[in-house]
Amino acid sequence: MIEGIGLGVGLLSLAIWVPIAAGVLILLTGGDKNADGQRTLALLGSVLGFLVTLPLWTGFDSTSAAMQFVETAQWVPAFNIFYQVGVDGIAMPFILLNSFTTILVVLAGWAVIKERTGQYMAAFLIQSGLLNGVFAAMDGVLFYVFFEAMLIPLYLIIGMWGGPNRVYAAIKFFLYTLLGSLLMLVSLIYLFFQSGGSFEIQVWHRVPLTMVAQTLLFIAFFFAFAVKVPMWPVHTWLPDAHVEAPTGGSVVLAAITLKVGAYGFLRFIMPILPDASHEYAYVIVTLSLIAVVYIGLVALVQADMKKLIAYSSIAHMGFVTLGFFLFNPLGIEGGLVQMISHGFISAAMFLCVGVMYDRVHSRQIADYGGVANTMPRFAAFFMLFAMANAGLPGTSGFVGEFMVILGAVQVNFWWAFLAATTLIFGAAYTLWMYKRVVFGPIGNEHVAEMKDIDSREFVVLGLLAICVLGMGLYPLPFTEVMHASVDNLLAHVAHSKLAY
Length: 500
What we know:
Distance between the termini: 26 Å
Oligomer: single chain
Structural class: mainly alpha
Strand content: under 5%
Strand order of the largest sheet: 1-2-3
Helix content: over 70%
Number of helices: 24
Number of strands: 3
Order of helices and strands: EHHHEEHHHHHHHHHHHHHHHHHHHHH
């Protein structure tokens, strides 16, 4: 059975099922006639869902690499499938990030969503629980069920509350992710038989595999997780999904859903297939550097703000996968820090675009200009997040990128050099967008009529500003929980698992 520390029995199950239960309860409260009650219930559910995750942080033993808060129960005994959940220093921060983001999404959609409000709120709460299940799952089948189920609420969010081309974007998103997932399912079944009939992910970490088997499994897992990241060239679904998704959908997609793909590299590919990971690391590094450089250039020419931020996300996630396959602590921890930071910054950037869209109903950069004259408080927040997106020291955007660059220097100077160009391109496309939207004279009558952010919007952006600055100025609490787990992963990956 699994090795772990059983602390705080039931906390992970609460983190998973409290938001799901709240979402189901909202669906049972009826239609739009009870919209105010549904919003209140959604807020209470999201806050409670976040509160039950806080003991995961306060009670976590950062000196241990073992899985903690472990829960095990029989699920399908005939196939040796268990409901097994637990977290280590790699998974735990993302459960908190996801639960925190859910609160922001509920607040952001409070006054904006006027049709099918309860269904909208319920979709986010259910997805929040399913995402927590992905990060906590220690059984392969359980992981796969959560991994697939989390697509359904997001598919509905894009398809029902999105823009004019929402159905096309939702179907493209679903088809891309489904293909990779089917390859992963075949791999899980193969590992089940190779491990002697176990679906426990930690057992798979110890299964000896031939290089041919590792290579085929690497390809299958790579497609499953690369689409989710998304890595170049399987990234084309993301800009469409972001542009058509409502603001809340874009926030969850960028802040959390993309992290599932990168998480899969650390939970499956590297520990289960260490020899293939080393053998084909150059492929991941090459694709990551293309994402950093090429996608950064693509972002420079975007006229739609959401599309620009979407391409920015692809470039920043390229930094993450680059860091992972450097196989040193700085690289992996830098990639993890970048994932958390990107969660804060991308959420903030999409919320800022959403604030303007709610007033002008346009995402085109050319339709703005001089926003600082009518929305000075908003402009100050937007400036902070734009600087963080560009990697300004003192913000969270700098910490992870700097760690990855330092890790890359230890392996190959030119990798570090190419990776560092993201700081230049990031500043170029982000500040160029900010200049055209916020500075200068008032662009048109629509901008002249814009009202500054209200108290609800101020709270949402203010919480994210605290996170961005707090992590940028004092990243130690975020990095220290990772050390033991990252060191354990690297020690495991260093040992060959070839079977002859």
